Amino acid sequence: MSEGYAVALLKYRLACYTEDAIALTGDPNFYMDNMIEDLDLAIAKLKSEAGTLAISPNNFALVGESAGAHIALMYALRTPDFDVKTVVSFYGPTLMDEEVFKTNASSAPYNNFTVNSIFALRDAAAGCDMSTSGSADLSWGINSFVGTELEVGTTNPSFTDTLSPANPNNLLRYLPVFLMHGAADDLVPHGHADSLMVELNSHFGTTPASITDFSAPHKLKKYEFCGHGWSGAGCNKTAIRNDVITWLGEHF
What we know:
This protein is an alpha/beta fold. The chain has a single domain, classed as Alpha/Beta hydrolase fold, catalytic domain (Rossmann fold), CATH 3.40.50. Helices cover 33% and strands 15% of the residues. The protein has helices spanning 30-48, 50-53, 67-76, 99-105, 138-146, 157-160, 191-204, 237-251, and strands at 16-17, 60-65, 84-90, 113-114, 121-123, 129-131, 135-136, 177-182, 218-223. The strands form 3 sheets. Strands 2-3-8-9 form a 4-stranded parallel sheet, sandwiched between helices. Helix 3 links the parallel strand 2 (60-65) and strand 3 (84-90). It is globular, with a radius of gyration of 18 Å.
């Protein structure tokens, strides 16, 4: 980037998508453990080749969006690697069993989204090979990841607590966290960011940052007119980009 940051796109193993409840793993850590391992391997690879790449081997920031933000938060808040200096979440889910999130994921348009080269998945019907065509139901994508069927009106804390960044048991690492969320998000309610911020402040004894304060260790900012994926005609993507750069300048 022109600001002097090197950017790497980290890929990780996806959950194998199924709409068959019997085929679910029954283990909330089955896929998460693989994803965390993949981030470990990717960061280790970048460190080992830091000289060739002309990057710092001990200065990493994780930035993720949606499911990627969820994994970035889970990794950063639990990793013992102090070379990970900060994490930035774009509209990441923090409470996997939250009712509105489950309802949104099982409703249009998310219950029938198009699978393509950008939104690909591992399809159980194809032996868990990657698929780039057809359609899928996001609620079953979440079920596949969690390992059990998450139904609206019921809770499964034995499955979802371990996968929820806002669960206090996952707050093992004190590091700067910037939660960025669209005020008009129709998939992940912006209350997910509120919930994690409350837990961070309570767990680590910090105070919420003001709208203009980027120096605080934990910050939440909501963006008017912005939906999931920073969608929306009135969503100011320039302001979002500038806020990320400002945050990194303070904490990275």
